């Protein structure tokens, strides 16, 4: 079994107005993990700690099973592609080709053919200086440049920021293609619900600098449901994960549960079926999770 691509162990980072941590989390190899949470919850700080542009005050981070307290060696950095939330100022006066030539020096596996293909698909102008590009054009260049070295770990901080719907769809397609054809893991920070739905294998929720947990996205969506049954409220005492309930009519109740699959099993064994169910929207799920209702099957 391959080691986790990234592991956080008892990580703390103290800022002027808030503290990030404790963070204990492992990013499994070969999956797409979405880091979600409100603005200011610590998502970008975590990603920057992976890149060692920010350092934790306590705890240990491991990359591909190994800690590097004295700094990431070049051989490890070459395995990581990064699209930061705030774009680099160092290349602003370079053209696309000049910036690509500069980056290719640092990556032994730089694939110029892939880079050219992505620029063409994203319709990025070649002769324009990066500082003269629109935010969306610059974002598309950054995504192409991060994917060109065919990294083992691709880190994307709000990758769709500035992208129009057509470019966003292309980005989704390229990330799926990357997962199918390369030995890549992806960690992305995002506020876009549809991005989580289409891409993520796992969801990590951050709030006020705390990691509230990590869970499989499909489990999250399969288990958080509103259910209707022809019973009275007394039956809720025997059911797990109940968030709220409502008397719909005489002999019929509805309830929201975080463990629908287990609830269905219990009811089925008692000869009781659902009248109907409704899957909660992902933003509803995340809101309830922040409120303290933990998902079933949460990974520590």
TrEMBL record:
Segments forming domain ABC transporter: 1-233
InterPro entries on file: AAA+_ATPase, ABC_transporter-like_ATP-bd, ABC_transporter-like_CS, ABC_Transporter_VariousFunc, P-loop_NTPase
Keyword Disulfide bond recorded: no
One GO MF term: ATP binding
SUPFAM superfamilies: P-loop containing nucleoside triphosphate hydrolases
Pfam families, sorted: ABC_tran
Domain of life: Bacteria
Protein's name in the database: ATP-binding cassette domain-containing protein
């Amino acid at each position: 079994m391959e080691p986790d691509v990234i592991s956080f162990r008892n990580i703390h980072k103290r800022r002027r107005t808030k503290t990030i941590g404790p963070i204990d989390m492992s990013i499994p190899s070969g999956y797409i993990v979405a880091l979600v949470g409100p603005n200011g919850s610590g998502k970008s700080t975590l990603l920057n700690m992976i890149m060692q542009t920010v350092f934790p005050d306590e705890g240990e981070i491991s990359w591909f099973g190994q800690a590097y307290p004295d700094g990431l060696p070049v051989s490890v950095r070459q395995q990581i592609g990064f699209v930061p939330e705030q774009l680099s100022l160092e290349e602003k006066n370079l053209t696309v080709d000049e910036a690509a030539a500069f980056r290719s020096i640092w990556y032994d596996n730089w694939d110029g053919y892939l880079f050219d293909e992505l620029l063409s698909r994203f319709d990025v102008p070649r002769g324009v200086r990066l500082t003269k590009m629109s935010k969306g054009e610059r974002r598309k260049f950054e995504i192409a440049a991060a994917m060109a070295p065919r990294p083992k770990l691709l880190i994307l901080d709000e990758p769709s920021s500035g992208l129009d719907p057509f470019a966003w769809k292309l980005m989704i397609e390229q990330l799926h293609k990357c997962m199918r054809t390369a030995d890549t893991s992806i960690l992305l920070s995002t506020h876009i619900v549809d991005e989580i739905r289409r891409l993520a294998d796992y969801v990590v929720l951050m709030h006020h600098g705390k990691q509230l947990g990590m869970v499989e996205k499909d489990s999250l969506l399969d288990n958080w449901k509103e259910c209707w049954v022809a019973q009275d409220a007394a039956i809720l005492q025997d059911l797990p994960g109940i968030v709220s309930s409502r008397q719909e009519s005489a002999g019929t109740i509805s309830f929201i549960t975080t463990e629908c699959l287990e609830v269905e099993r219990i009811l089925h064994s008692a000869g009781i079926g659902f009248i109907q169910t409704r899957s909660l929207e992902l933003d509803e799920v995340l809101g309830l999770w922040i409120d303290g209702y933990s998902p079933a099957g949460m990974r520590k």
